[in-house]
Automatic annotation (TrEMBL):
It comes from the Bacteria. Keywords: Isomerase, Lyase, RNA-binding. Its EC number is 5.4.99.-. Residues 2-59 form the RNA-binding S4 domain. It holds the Pfam family S4. InterPro entries: PsdUridine_s_RsuA/RluB/E/F_cat, PsdUridine_synth_cat_dom_sf, PsdUridine_synth_RsuA/RluA, PsdUridine_synth_RsuA/RluB/E/F, PsdUridine_synth_RsuA/RluB_CS, RsuA_PseudoU_synthase, S4_RNA-bd, S4_RNA-bd_sf. Belongs to the pseudouridine synthase RsuA family. This is Pseudouridine synthase. It comes from Exiguobacterium oxidotolerans. One of its GO terms (molecular function) is RNA binding. The keyword Glycoprotein does not apply.
Length: 253
């Protein structure tokens, strides 16, 4: 028996908080009966509907992808461009955990476990993400280090603490390479942080998410996360989160 809002979140329909709203608004049915009481527990064979659509409970899968540039981080694209879902095995209704821009490459997670995704993306858990950024323009060292204290982006978002290092400078070409570790996932955050320096991003790559790295993968490759890795990610995000149970099966294409 599991709480109804958890089942909805795990199906990827909504976050657990949003699932609670759906329940209290009378938009959820269990075995044909409208449920509005939070905390209601549901058995594994119960039929759950949200807005008249039956939830399909499927085995959870967890993929790590080395996203190439020129691929969109969505399930489908109305412009007909290749999506990250096209790069992982078919058969499961997976979605990306957060996004990487069209012109950004690097480590991206995909899953059909909505609760797992929400846990990793929740700002209060501060899961670290490490990027390598090649920029046009050589900013002042002290301005670069100023990014570590947090800056206000053009859309008004105030970034939290970060780690920023100047790894290389080419004064002849007027370029520099930064290593940046951030703990949020605000839209275009790294690019906007760089822009506050008066510089322009030439190339951006996410090399690490939590403890996961791209070791052993080349652009376009994927692999399935192990049960141990999934549980370690849960532990990293929320030390009190229970471990997950899933089959052992690691692939690479």
């Amino acid at each position: 028996m599991e709480r109804l809002q958890k089942i909805i979140a795990q199906a990827g329909v909504a976050s657990r908080r949003k699932a609670e709203e759906l329940i209290t608004e009378g938009r959820v049915k269990v075995n044909g009966k409208v449920i509005t009481e939070l905390g209601t527990k549901v058995g594994g064979r119960a039929e759950v509907e949200v807005d008249g659509v039956k939830l399909e409970r499927e085995e959870h899968v967890y993929y790590m992808l080395y996203k190439p540039t020129g691929v969109v981080s969505t399930v489908e694209d109305d412009k007909g461009r290749k999506t990250v879902v096209d790069l992982v095995p078919p058969g499961h209704r997976v979605f990306p955990v957060g996004r990487l821009d069209y012109n950004t490459s690097g480590l991206l997670l995909l899953t059909n476990d909505g609760e797992f995704s929400n846990l990793l993306l929740h700002p209060k858990y501060k899961v670290p993400k490490r990027y390598i950024v090649k920029i046009k323009g050589v900013p002042d060292y002290y301005h670069v280090k100023g990014l570590e204290k947090g800056v206000v982006l053009p859309d008004g978002f105030k970034t939290g603490k970060a780690r920023v290092e100047m790894r290389d400078v080419d004064k002849k070409k007027n370029t520099a390479i930064l290593e940046m570790v951030i703990y949020e996932g605000h839209n275009r955050q790294v690019r906007q942080m760089v822009e506050t320096l008066g510089a322009e991003v030439i190339k951006l790559k996410r090399e690490q998410f939590g403890f996961l790295t791209l070791a052993g993968l080349t652009s376009g490759d994927w692999r399935e996360l192990s049960k141990k890795e999934v549980n370690q990610l849960r532990e990293l995000a929320d030390p009190v989160a229970p471990p997950t149970k899933r089959r052992k099966n690691t692939k690479k294409r």
